[in-house]
Amino acid sequence: MGTLVKNSSEQLQNKDKLNKPSVLKVSIMKVVRQIPDQKVMFFGQIADMVDSHARLVGYVLTGMNEEEMKLVPWYRVVAKDGFISSLKLGMKGHIQKKLLLREGYKLNGDKVDMNEHLWLFAGINHLEDRVDDYEGFIEGLKR
Asked: In which domain, by residue range, is 44 found?
């Protein structure tokens, strides 16, 4: 029982860390903002590029504020099989699906056609290209 409590408190501490601008968050945003129209990436691809885990990538994207969501095409990130996994979250998932449809993505139900839209991006060299300055990064996106 003590392990469960300890793990829960560690998870809460990690969750708090991800809500603050972090190297991980900015690294994820840097990759996501480069996904071109008509292409998607999946959480695991991005996680591999920033030395993280797919679930943390999803958590970071889910926790983006409105300003960040306007600057970064977060909706172009889906599950490995193309499923719009944010649909499990309710309204945000419906917004994601609507944005994808508006941009002309081919969907099969709640899945993006990965044969047509998957982007195999290799433009970030793991830790070497991480951005440490969140405010500078966001200001650069606004220009």
From this structure: 23-117+131-142
Contact indicator for 132, 29 with CB cutoff of 8 Å: no
- Name the pTM for this structure: 0.73
CA distances from 138 to 22, 27, 43, 68, 86 (A): 12, 12, 22, 8, 24
> What is the DSSP code (8-state) at residue 77?
E
Are the C-beta atoms of 117 and 106 separated by less than 8 Å?
yes
When computed from its CA atoms, the radius of gyration of the chain, rounded to whole angstroms, is 16
The model's pLDDT over 23-48, given as tens digits with 9 standing for 90+, comes to: 889 999 999 999 999 999 999 999 99
Under 8 Å between Cβ of 45 and 53: no
Specify the pairing of strand 77-78 against strand 41-42. parallel
- Kindly state whether residue 96 falls inside one of the protein's structural domains: yes
48: domain CATH number is 1.10.10.10
